[in-house]
Amino acid sequence: SGCRWDVEFSVNCSFTGTSTVPEDISQTAITADFSYNNIKTFMCADGRREEWMLKHLNLSNNLISELSLTTCRNLPVLETLNLDGNAIRTLALDVPTPAPGSQTYGKVHRLLPALKVLSVERNNLNRVPRGLGLLQSLQTVRLSSNGIGQIDGSDFQNCSQLKDIHLQNNKITKIHPDTFRDLHKLQVVDLRENALATPLPQILISLNFFRLEAGLSSNAW
Predict the structure, then answer these.
(1) How far apart are CA 133 and CA 175, in angstroms?
(2) pLDDT digits (tens, 9 = 90+) for 51-105
(3) Which of 141, 147, 134, 150 is nearest to 116 (CA)?
(4) Dihedral sign (CA 17, 19, 22, 26)
(5) What is the C-alpha to C-alpha distance for residues 205 and 163, in angstroms, rounded to an integer?
(6) What is the pTM of this model?
(7) Residue 190 pairs with which residues in a beta bridge?
(8) 96 in helix, strand or coil?
């Protein structure tokens, strides 16, 4: 496949021209780099029984346009997922509610329970991915250089561990007043290079200014 084992449990498949993620590699590697290739889709192989031991997965600079993480039940220890530099328009995190009477009705699905860092910079997103609150360990979300136009009050709902939000270089004109209200561990909010026309004291008023770093430069005000 052209992949190289740089150190034990670390595989480098960047610049190999691959269009798929080899399943045999991802079952044994802890760190896997598939950047700068021709990958168009990434399937978590939910039907497989084997759990992958990946902690760090780099899929940046590929050709991915749509991606669903709702079936990623075999990546229990994944901590960082890098999707920068793709063409992602839709990133699905929401798990459809099971119908009453179905086998999964009433069961709580923990999506990527160890994921701490989700990076989707330089893509084609026009909204914050729905369902971020399902990522119970998420601490950092990077969404800069997309086409996001507004931030809704529910976009970061239930993201209780979130510390860093990077939204610079988007097209944001509106942010719901309650967007950051319940993010008690929040330390960094980067909103530089957007289209905000008015200052945001009503949004940041409930946050702890002594520990919050807010980037607001290069907006329209």
Answers:
(1) 18
(2) 788 999 999 999 999 888 887 888 899 999 999 999 999 888 876 555 455 454 3
(3) 141
(4) positive
(5) 17
(6) 0.87
(7) 166, 215
(8) coil
